[in-house]
Amino acid sequence: MKIFSKTPFLIADIGFNFFDIAEKEGISDIDAAKLMIDEAKSCGVDAVMFQSYKSENVVSSSFPNYWDSSQDPIDSQFELFKKFDRFGADEFRQLSDYCNDGGIMFLSTPYDFEAVDYLDEFMSVFKISSSDLTNIPFIKYVAGKNKPILLSTGASTIKEIKDAVKAIEEVSTVDIAIMHCVLSHPTAFEDANLSMINDLSSNFPDYEVGYSDHTKSDENMMVLTTAYNYGATIIEKHFTLDKSLPGNDHFYAMDSKDVGKFKSNIDFLSKISGYKHKQLLICESSTRKETRRSIVAKNDIGKGSVISQSDIAFKRPGTGISPADVDDVIGKVANVDISKDTLIAYEMLNS
Predict the structure, then answer these.
(1) pTM tops 0.70, yes or no
(2) I need a surface site. Which of 78, 112, 320, 328 has the fewest CB within 10 A?
(3) In the CATH scheme, what architecture does the domain 282-350 have?
(4) Which option is the CATH number for 9-273: 3.90.950.20, 3.40.190.80, 3.20.20.70, 3.30.1510.10?
(5) Sorting pLDDT into bands at 50, 70 and 90, what band is 24?
(6) CB-CB neighbours of 34 under 10 Å
(7) Angle made by CA atoms 230, 232, 237, in degrees to the nearest 5
(8) pLDDT, position 60
């Protein structure tokens, strides 16, 4: 069963980008978050996503960074997480209310148990990060809230995904979406491996499949468009108002123009996809008659003649007897004179 009624369902992962927007615009953090929600809503995004945690619950203070330090020079994961853990239950509740009033869905990925508890009060769908795919106790805790789950699968094996799904289903009957993801920030185009979407669909035929993207936005948004074309019904990508801002989550994020391109691509795909099952189309009707073949007299056929294979040919237009019914013509007796190149009709023949 689908988690969202709309397909594709597009999620703008704001993450912590609003902190940089706040600094750039000289506004409060909460106002910057609202500004980004407004922009996402105006360009047609279906949901916005944040991240909820306290850094001391997530990462050891001594653990080094793993991202592109040319884009973000912070030395450790803890230092980076600490920089962005200023929001808690009250702030996210404000943002949830703001989204509800604006007609866009609020989401936030919890990274600790405390965040799961307070988000449960005002959030209808949970996201489990790729980093927690093997954190079975945490997965079961989230599943215990009995709300649909987006399960991100970056850097995982099929067995690990199956174990995570099993953990969810041991405590809940919620709908689950399996999200293809590559845990590389940014993901090189050659590492996107969108064909894995098909593999996930094959391995998890009873579940919805989506895509969480970390590639740099390409000019024509073909990565997201291809993911959708391969069967991803939920699309998630980092979102920014300014790709030139420092930090890993801005330069490879999508902006409102990218969203517009993606939605235009989807509209075009919808237009050209048409009917699911092969059938005759209205636009083909006249051409079908003009270009198909009919049984015609290859030579003059006199009244009373028994029609043989040598008496007939197959020519356009297809408004007469079809060549597929040739056995209904051969061996019959002509009850009128039939001139060469005339379309043979059943009324010209004795039964």
Answers:
(1) yes
(2) 328
(3) Alpha-Beta Complex (3.90)
(4) 3.20.20.70
(5) very high
(6) 18
(7) 120
(8) 73
